[in-house]
Write a structure and sequence with these properties.
Dimeric_a/b-barrel; about 30% helix; AsnC-like helix-turn-helix protein; Alpha-Beta Plaits; Tscrpt_reg_AsnC/Lrp_C; alpha+beta
Length: about 90
């Protein structure tokens, strides 16, 4: 599975509609509106790099109001839940 974070700049008046449209695209799991340098952040999960290559320029970038995208592919995930599970291997409760 390929996980990517897509940073999206959008026209201010189009942010809610663009976010909803992007959220409905297959492969997009979440869309966040945010403050800062970007307006929206989309979390994308696809099977192949080719799927990502189609999804971002072929669909997300073509959504009305989207001005620019910047895609970051993740290599590894770190979370509190995964860290706790790794360190609890071999420990028995009781």
């Amino acid at each position: 599975m390929i996980n990517a974070i897509v940073l999206i700049q959008a026209a201010a008046e189009s942010i809610p509609e663009a976010a909803q449209t992007i959220a409905e695209i297959e492969g997009v799991t979440e869309v966040y509106s945010c403050a800062g340098d970007v307006d929206l952040i989309a979390i994308v999960k696809v099977d192949r790099h080719e799927d990502l290559a189609e999804l971002v320029p072929g669909q997300i970038s073509k959504v009305a109001g989207v001005l620019n995208t910047d895609t970051h592919i993740s290599f590894r995930s770190y979370s509190k839940r995964e860290t706790e599970a790794a360190f609890s291997i071999g420990l028995e409760e009781g």
